[in-house]
Automatic annotation (TrEMBL):
<feature type="binding site">
    <location>
        <position position="65"/>
    </location>
    <ligand>
        <name>substrate</name>
    </ligand>
</feature>
<dbReference type="GO" id="GO:0019323">
    <property type="term" value="P:pentose catabolic process"/>
</dbReference>
<feature type="binding site">
    <location>
        <position position="34"/>
    </location>
    <ligand>
        <name>a divalent metal cation</name>
    </ligand>
</feature>
<feature type="binding site">
    <location>
        <position position="32"/>
    </location>
    <ligand>
        <name>a divalent metal cation</name>
    </ligand>
</feature>
<feature type="binding site">
    <location>
        <begin position="141"/>
        <end position="144"/>
    </location>
    <ligand>
        <name>substrate</name>
    </ligand>
</feature>
<protein>
    <recommendedName>
        <fullName>Ribulose-phosphate 3-epimerase</fullName>
        <ecNumber>5.1.3.1</ecNumber>
    </recommendedName>
</protein>
<dbReference type="InterPro" id="IPR013785">
    <property type="entry name" value="Aldolase_TIM"/>
</dbReference>
<dbReference type="InterPro" id="IPR000056">
    <property type="entry name" value="Ribul_P_3_epim-like"/>
</dbReference>
<keyword id="KW-0119">Carbohydrate metabolism</keyword>
<feature type="active site" description="Proton acceptor">
    <location>
        <position position="34"/>
    </location>
</feature>
<feature type="binding site">
    <location>
        <position position="176"/>
    </location>
    <ligand>
        <name>substrate</name>
    </ligand>
</feature>
<comment type="pathway">
    <text>Carbohydrate degradation.</text>
</comment>
<comment type="function">
    <text>Catalyzes the reversible epimerization of D-ribulose 5-phosphate to D-xylulose 5-phosphate.</text>
</comment>
<dbReference type="InterPro" id="IPR026019">
    <property type="entry name" value="Ribul_P_3_epim"/>
</dbReference>
<keyword id="KW-0413">Isomerase</keyword>
<dbReference type="GO" id="GO:0006098">
    <property type="term" value="P:pentose-phosphate shunt"/>
</dbReference>
<dbReference type="GO" id="GO:0005737">
    <property type="term" value="C:cytoplasm"/>
</dbReference>
Amino acid sequence: MAEIAPSILAADFANLQRDIEMLNASEADYIHVDIMDGMFVPNISFGIPVCEAIHKHARKPLDVHLMIEQPDRYLEAFSKAGAWGLTVHYEACPHLHSTVQHIRQLGVQPGVAINPHTPVEALSEILPDLSLVLVMSVNPGFGGQKFIENTYKKVATLKALKEKFGYNFKIEVDGGVNLDNAASLIQNGADILVAGSFVFGSANPTATIADLKNK
Ligand SMILES: O=C(CO)[C@@H](O)[C@H](O)COP(=O)(O)O
Ligand SMILES: [Co+2]
């Protein structure tokens, strides 16, 4: 069984409060909040005021995924906007150790995300400092993309490193997650599954979250 983090990116933005209340009443463990700047990724989603508004209604921790360049500029602002966890991209952080320490000093759980082309081994020196490793199973920037199969291998490698060195970070998988790949992801070591379009595009999102949770 994994924890589930539905991505609010796939919610109805004109009915955000309604969709947050649905998540509050569901078996979701977190609310995944995708921040896109139109620079690190081609798409723009929403920013700090929307994160604040989500936090006002959410009764689940906000798992904030920063797909932005130079994320250090905004760590404090997102922490004040209610982030429980702040995940930055390895590819966007030349001083990753310093960025991770900054997140922890803010009292927020630090996470690092890796794009599909980035090997898990690139994180070897930072793994002891992390609460979360987010493995992108699509190229970041858009919901509704097809799951990349190579992700299973990356998750298994991370799990092996956790076991070998006794690290505490959780392994989160993000992109194209559905009921066809959830069980294999969990078997390979995924602790948290992010799902956007599969949840919000289903006829009964609450039941879909429960189905993913009970895999
Ligand atoms: O970070 C991202 C995309 O860049 C994700 O969190 C998506 O929002 C997941 O959406 P689906 O692939 O589940 O539709
Ligand atoms: Co995400």
